[in-house]
Specification:
Mean pLDDT: 75
Low-confidence stretches: 189-208, 242-280
Structural class: mainly beta
Shape: elongated
Number of helices: 0
Radius of gyration: 24 Å
Helix content: under 10%
Strand content: over 45%
Number of strands: 27
Largest sheet: 5 strands, antiparallel
Distance between the termini: 73 Å
């Protein structure tokens, strides 16, 4: 009888269905992000349209910053364990001036069992947007709907999100250096099974950030559980082995972006990463380093036709490298074509082969 409702707001985040009070009936939770104020408010209604406990709760922005982009909300935990909550994760600007300005991954939410809100900065991703040499310009942010499962000791479930970001580093107002990262972000650093920032691919993802990422949890049997990661055309499977303990969690959003029920999965998970296919990209190690850099073309075959050119930030070629005839390795000793030690600083390494190119940044120290 209480429907339809006029919320006097534009819904930019999907709704969530959850039994927040344990009475056997689901409530409707509508997170509303006000672009003008930068705040997120939760509207909570019973099935008949009447307001429910917690309606109108204002979710605090961590450190008083502003959201650059938000991921879809999810429910995690259970009423019986006292940790049933709605969580929203996203990319945050701390809004501090000058050299103190930072981008963070952050979380905010509402704890249903106590009717209290919370917020926190996630460890593992803190980017200074301004330096003495220039500033960062955000190109793209791609965040999959978060997942929740019990990956720590004790009852309840914890949240994790797969997110990727790409940006341009504008130096001296003239040179633009691309940068990107893609990884898992967790609320706090733990010893197992994942770090606070767990890369999708070992060494990080060096390809330009694509248009979409997605994740899902899929139990196979009592002892095996798959975490599936999709990055554009790349699919990564992470098998997780466990014992015979179970817990109820809220999985990633369905295709309609709504959480509609608790889902039984296996707890006490320990991931074992497996190899996955990806596009060709150039990586270098150690980086930063004083010299003797080793270059590796991921996804490419060792080929004598491969060439790596090293440029300074003014576009001048410092060195031209080719695979060693004996072992096929491509290395740079930090010297220019005349054998002189190159100045410490940032350089661009450009690999060329079969009409293709890949670029990575090299930091030379002394």
């Amino acid at each position: 009888p209480g429907w339809p409702l006029d919320l006097d707001a534009q819904l930019t985040l999907p709704p969530v269905l959850a039994d927040t009070d344990g009475d056997g009936h689901r409530e409707i939770l509508l997170p509303i992000h006000d672009a003008g104020t930068g705040q997120v408010v939760i509207r909570i209604f019973n099935a008949d349209g009447s307001v429910a406990t917690g309606d109108g709760t204002l979710l605090p922005n961590p450190q008083g910053g502003s959201w650059l982009q938000l991921a879809p909300p999810l429910m995690a935990g259970r009423v019986s364990t006292g940790d049933l909550r709605l969580e929203i994760m996203g990319l945050l600007d701390n809004d501090l001036p000058g050299l103190n300005n930072r981008w963070h991954m952050a979380r905010t939410g509402w704890l249903a069992t106590t009717n209290q809100s919370f917020s926190a900065i996630l460890p593992g991703f803190e980017v200074a947007t301004t330096t003495n040499q220039g500033f960062l310009q955000l190109d793209k942010a791609a965040m999959a709907p978060p997942l929740a499962w019990n990956y720590q000791d004790g009852p309840g479930s914890e949240v994790a999100i797969l997110a990727g970001f790409s940006w341009q580093e504008i130096l001296y107002g003239q040179t633009a250096i691309p940068g990107a990262t893609l990884g898992w972000f967790l609320p706090r650093t733990i010893e197992r099974p994942l770090e606070s920032r767990h890369p999708v691919a070992l060494g990080g993802h060096a390809d330009p950030l694509g248009s979409s990422v997605a994740t899902v949890l899929s139990p196979i049997n009592d002892d095996l559980f798959y975490q599936v990661q999709v990055y554009d055309n790349d699919v990564h499977l992470m098998p997780m082995h466990t014992g015979n303990n179970y817990t109820a969690i809220w999985p990633s959003a369905r295709f309609d972006q709504r959480n509609s029920a608790a889902y039984p999965v296996i707890e006490d998970l320990s991931p074992v990463p497996v190899a996955s296919a990806s596009l060709s990209s150039l990586s270098v190690y150690p980086n930063p380093g004083p010299g003797r850099f080793h270059f590796r073309l991921k996804g490419g075959s060792p080929d004598a036709a491969i060439r790596v050119d090293v440029f300074d930030l003014r576009g001048r070629r410092v060195a031209q490298l080719r695979p060693d005839p004996g072992n096929g390795e491509i290395t740079w000793d930090g010297r220019d074509g005349r054998g002189r030690a190159a100045a410490a600083g940032a350089y661009l390494a450009v690999a060329s082969w079969q009409g293709k190119t890949s670029v990575t940044r090299v930091i030379l120290t002394h």
